Amino acid sequence: MKNNKLNICHIVNWYPNKWDNKEAIWTKRHIDGLNELCDNDVYHVQVRFGKLKKHFYRVSDTEQAFILSAKTNIWFLREIITTMLLVYVILFKIKNRKQYDAYNFQITYPLLTYSKINNLVLKSP
Questions:
Q1: What is the CATH number of the domain that holds 82?
Q2: Rounded to 5 degrees, what angle do the CA atoms 72, 77, 79 make?
Q3: Which helix (H) or strand (E) holds 6?
Q4: Into how many domains does the chain fold?
């Protein structure tokens, strides 16, 4: 039997993580609620305040976290860093971009602040 489920790539800014397993739990519940109709992959892309360090880890077979901590709360710098991290994830970590029927960005700020750059990289609106 052919799998008629949609393949959805969820790119989220807030998501349960190793610092707070309840952070944006509604986002996880929303995605989990789609499991009957969709095959979901989750990429958690976030810039947090703290000592400069990367925190890249796999949560499950379908969930990965790409979190940078940076010692800045300057909104413009955080937008730029988030955009660069997102482009990195799209180009080098999302294995086969053609496999997805749709991209779902949850909590769009700051992920889509510079959405034209994302559209160029994804080659998809």
A1: 3.40.50
A2: 115
A3: strand 6-12
A4: 1
Pairing of strands 102-106, 63-70: unpaired
Which residue type sits at 79? Answer: E
Please check whether residue 123 lies inside any domain of the structure.
no
Q: Residue 41 domain-assigned?
A: yes
The answer to whether residue 64 is domain-embedded is yes
One digit per residue, the tens of pLDDT, for the chain of length 125 reads: 457 899 999 999 999 999 999 999 999 999 999 999 999 999 999 999 999 999 999 999 999 999 999 999 898 899 999 999 999 998 899 877 778 988 898 877 888 777 777 677 776 65
Full-model pTM: 0.87
Rounded (10°) CA dihedral 51, 76, 16, 57: -60
Amino acid type, 70: A
In 3-state terms, what secondary structure has residue 62?
A: coil
Distance CA 8, CA 21 (A): 23
> What is the rounded distance in angstroms from the CA atom of residue 73 to the CA atom of residue 47?
10
| Amino acid letter for position 41 | D
